[in-house]
Amino acid sequence: MLEIQGVYKTFNPGTINEKKALNGIDLKLNEGDFVTVIGGNGAGKSTLLNMITGVYPVDCGTIKVGTDYTDITKLAEHKRAKYFGRVFQDPMTGTAADMEIQENLALASRRGKMRTLVPGIRSSEKEHYKELLKKLDLGLEDRLTSKVGLLSGGQRQAITLLMATLKKPQLLLLDEHTAALDPQTAAKVLSLTEELVAENNLTTLMITHNMKDAIRLGNRLIMMSEGRIIYDISGEEKKNLKVSDLLDLFAKASNGEFANDRMLLS
What we know:
Blueprint: E1 2-11, E2 19-29, E3 34-39, H1 45-53, E4 60-65, E5 70-71, H2 77-80, E6 84-87, H3 101-109, H4 123-134, H5 153-166, E7 171-175, H6 183-200, E8 204-207, H7 211-216, E9 220-225, E10 228-234, H8 235-239, H9 243-253, H10 258-261
Parallel strand pairs: 3-8, 3-9, 6-7, 7-8
Antiparallel strand pairs: 1-2, 1-4, 4-5, 9-10
């Protein structure tokens, strides 16, 4: 569902602020893979997602998506959006605050479709949205007309996750989507994530700083450092991993910078 070959990205090349964000990324995800991504601050994790979605152009390399490996390397961000569902770290990013819950969901359900002059949201759609919102167990099924901006961060993030998976994307991208939430709400959103990914067999790439989550979730784990993928673990090897193992691996790869990132990898 995703094939990245030889992708490099340098920001501000030739200046004092030059930063090599990605340094020869090769990555392939098969259909149904749930891959967790960990690494220290500035390892290139979010840049990787931004390259995939087209926020920034790559310096070189190719990015292909889908079972037919469509080359999207040079596609504009809005033209490749139909392939992806994405949830950001900031709960305020993935929704339109001044629009109602049902309007946000309607936008997500119409993604990639031709837009016509149909008045409002059909009753059948509203019933469908109510059923979906019931799964969240947040009492939102009775608040379809509430403005999203009035909801808590956890409620907004849950709705964003629902919107990202409403039209089954070819790839679901989760960029530390529970990091800004309190522990109880984060656990709720993470549980919902597991449920939606399993229910829809979504190919998923999830960035996290939580090593326990990285080990527990998914069938594969990759570790990044200085714009490279330095470990790629799956199968029994991943099942037998412990947090101490990952800490040791990161310490070896961080060249003495481990102390600065240890708190981020707790």
